[in-house]
Amino acid sequence: MVDQITSLPIPSFNDPQQYVSDLTKASGSSFFLPMLFLPKKRRQAMLALYAFCRETDDVVDEIEDKAIAKQLLEAWRLEVEALYTGKPTHPVTMALSGPVTQYGLEKKYFMEILNGFEMDRSGEMLRPSISKLELYCYRVASCVGLISINIFGYKDPKVILFAEHLGQAFQLTNILRDIAEDGARGRIYLPKEILENSNLLNVSPGDIIRSSGLSDACREVGKMARNHFNLAEQLLPRLERRHMRPAILMKSVYEQYLNEMENVDFKHYDRRVRLGKMRKILLLCRGLCSTF
Question: Residue 142: how many CB atoms within 10 A of its CB?
Fold first, then answer.
């Protein structure tokens, strides 16, 4: 029988800001480099936000016992409540404490991120409907963007729609990159309507990468991602491009991931599509030039 987890386990740390910085660097994510273009306080706020997403996502990805994962997600919800009452105990929420006040970060978006991870834990995301997939992407990605734009700073309300569409595009792209890895974990994020059209609705997660028709299904999801990238670009006001510089830099990398998968007609299942460091730097430079 699993022991009841009544509080969030607190890792060893000396300085909350150093903790979130070290966690972000260790992840090897494409996230870190674009944040270097932010002023120090905004950059520190974004590192804390990334650390929150990394720690809470790991609850679902790294903990196989579903009962423990459920308890830990509930503990994180309580920790978010503690953050907003001025009593955080975890280094990540301690690092978020200043930004929450300084940038007016809303509690509902942090809770929605946790709700998205709960969808993962509960098994809802095994062949979801298109509408459920869109809700999931909104929670785990668009809500991160909606927090981020407050940290970046903006004036035009169209930036809100930009963040929502860019989050959808990012998450759909990640889903396409992770087909094999997710299948090995018993997950299929591709929507059931598209799977049915490709005669894949009854294929098991472990067999999905060996199934004919998978490229057709991925191509349709790729079109969804491309549409969100295009809408994000159209909705971002010219005068806000400088403020949204980190998001634009990340967009340049993630769009290239999608390009790479399209170039091989989504037959990339033997490897997760990656870009070399120099390639990323060139893409970031190109994205940077578009923000002036």
Answer: 28
Same domain, 74 and 127: no
- Tens of pLDDT, residue by residue, the chain (292 residues): 345 655 788 998 999 999 999 998 887 777 777 888 899 999 999 999 999 999 999 998 888 888 899 999 999 999 999 999 999 999 999 999 999 999 999 999 999 999 999 999 999 999 999 999 999 999 999 999 999 999 999 999 999 999 999 999 999 999 999 999 999 999 999 999 999 999 999 999 999 999 999 999 999 999 999 999 999 999 999 999 999 999 999 999 999 999 999 999 998 777 788 888 888 888 888 888 888 7
Query: Do 165 and 256 have their domain in common?
Result: yes
Contacts of 218 (CB under 8 A, 6+ apart): 176, 179, 190, 261, 266
Domains of the chain: total: 2
Task: Quote the pTM value.
Answer: 0.94
Going by C-alpha positions, the residue among 186, 193, 149, 194 that lies closest to residue 167 is 149
Question: For residue 213, how many other CB atoms are within 10 A of its CB?
Answer: 14
DSSP 240: G
Range of the domain at 85: 12-104
Radius of gyration of the chain (CA): 19
